Amino acid sequence: MIVTKMSRPATLIGLGLILGCSSGGGGGVSGLGGSTGGSGGANESGGEQEPGGASGTGGVQGAGGTTGSGGSPGSGGATTTRPSYNTGTGFFVLNGKLYDANGVEFRIRGVDRNHYDMDAPGIPKTHANTERTVLFFNGEWGSTGTRNVQTMQQDMINNHIVPMPGNWEGTCDESTATLTTIVDRWVAQVSTYKTLDKYMILNIANEWGPADSTVWRDSYITAIQRLRTAGYTCTISVDSGGCGQDNADLAKYAQGVFDADPQKNVIFDQHVYGNWGLDAGKLSWQQGLIAGFDALVATGLPVIIGEFGPGRNIGPSPTAITPQAIIQAAEARNLGWMAWAWDDNPSAGDDWFALSLNGDYNSSADLTTFGKSVVEGAGYGLLALAKPATAW
After folding, report:
1. pTM surpassing 0.90?
2. Which domains does the chain carry?
């Protein structure tokens, strides 16, 4: 859809259309109420150990506890060597995990940002370590590649937040020509964006592509090869098709996309809205969420839950799926996650998707109910789990 200044560009058109994504793998291994095996108590990429990580459902682990199942090594922990086939200087993927430039495992925990051209001083205060950002490429509101990069440098990199710039022109679009045009834009501006190779994860196209389709697979294989030929060596993020919500694209075809990348440096992004994960009404949303996430884990690839909303049956595709359930299920499976969105129509308050009411964050009064859950949620919010990136 066309991105407007106060609209949610990510999934407005297609949210109500994707009501039953393929669940792929079998049933869940843990409930939604708590993390398993201490995954919430991960030592973060900055080498600092969480003062009280989760060590089971509801349990609290002391400051001297061991690293959680998906956590990064603590200060003095072992680092991973960049594989020889990866010629980049920034993030890289190895054995299904994402690592920063220093070879420290990195778990994405952050927020989406709808309006990169408007101030968002509160995001660094939330401890978010990654910011997925809607960019413009055609001069809208004064946008240029240079301005985009300058904004990311100022607002994200200087605050040790990983920028994940993205193109939203293909949202809920299934035309291969659209994806080709989007890649044309990235290729044409490679000299500008390549300056961020050490810091960024490049999100090719928001929610482009057909569901459960080899067209999705083959189109992204071509897109990634073109970006690599142009000179991009950074980690690339690929959204699932079906308005970003199709589980089958990732469960069945993501491995083929990953294997075709000469850098072997791709992560995959699943969005959760509406009746996501339901199988023709046979599953509850809780069961569907677990089955869908388990199918993603079964791929052995690095996957993030790159968008989810406030639940409470709010918005154009009402859902009962709560942000707490999504974060806790993601944490239990070592999946990264990002909430949509910091600044999506904050004037609507609790009736829409914004996390912040005014772009800032100094206290709970600056946050919507959704924002309080994602940022301040006891044991599972950004303040409890996320640490700034420390590879630069």
Report:
1. no
2. 15-385 (3.20.20.80)
